[in-house]
Amino acid sequence: MRSSSWHDLLSATAIVLLVLFFWECGVCLAHTPTYLLPPPSLIFKQLFHDPFYYVSALWVTLGEAAAGLICGVVGGVSVAVGVTVFPRLERGMITIAILIKSMPLAAIAPLLTIWLGFGVLPKVIITALLTFFPVLVNVLVGLQNPEQEMLDLMRVHGASTWQILRHLRSWNALPYLFAALRVAVPLSLMGAVIAEWTGATSGLGRVMWLAYANLNLPPLFAAIFIISAASVIFYLFTVYVERISMPWRNNPVN
Which H or E run includes 143? Predict the structure, then answer.
């Protein structure tokens, strides 16, 4: 790991520890009741008291988030490619995409639970709906805006629409795809948790809901800490995959 990366990691860790320290001190000095805001020490005590409970719930949420993210990415990329190849479809498809984006997921999630039950499918659909739009918009911008000189050159040499898509537009859209994934990956976890709040038999969302219903805040905050840490880890993993997928961006030619 580069020295700058280590410096960034240490800086972020120091900031988090500082926030937790002031949180602990503030709660203790103000004598804040646990049912309003528990101190970090109590939250971590709760977390380490039964780690397997939270780990098993995390795996369920991660599975739902991953499945929804894959569906959202595949759907967004497919629509972006279709609109690029068939421009007449753009207005209609973008209108439908905006309507999907405008739907309040907090209202849609209970309906999906009523229609499809308490299984995995409603969670996957909610997560896919949440991640579909940012992927569509970013990939579409990348596909529709290649370098004009390269586009003219390929057309002069008689390249077909699919050849231009494969050899020029897709490579131009790759950075936009990873930019969308930086947003979509944390959103997928949030979508899975939101869907679990409306009805689930397992998962971190159910852990949060049970803790909230009983005004037992330490487990609620423990689940929040876990989902936040998972979001950061997968975001950093996305950045790492982006770097190894596009090494030419890290080592530009002078």
Answer: helix 121-144
Please give the span between the terminal C-alpha atoms of the chain, in angstroms, as a whole number.
Answer: 24
Whole-structure pTM value:
0.88
Instruction: Measure the CA–CA gap between 86 and 170, rounded to whole angstroms.
Output: 15
Range of the domain at 81: 38-248
- 45-100 pLDDT per residue, tens: 999 888 899 999 999 999 999 999 999 999 999 999 999 999 888 888 888 888 88
Here the CATH number for the domain that contains residue 125 is 1.10.3720.10
Is 25 part of any domain? no
Determine the Cα–Cα distance for residues 87 and 203; give it in Å rounded to an integer.
Answer: 42
Residue 172 exposed, middle or buried by CB count within 10 Å (0-12, 13-18, 19+): middle
| Residue 190 maps to a domain | yes
Residue 110 in tokens: 């209970």
Query: Is the residue at 128 inside a domain?
Result: yes
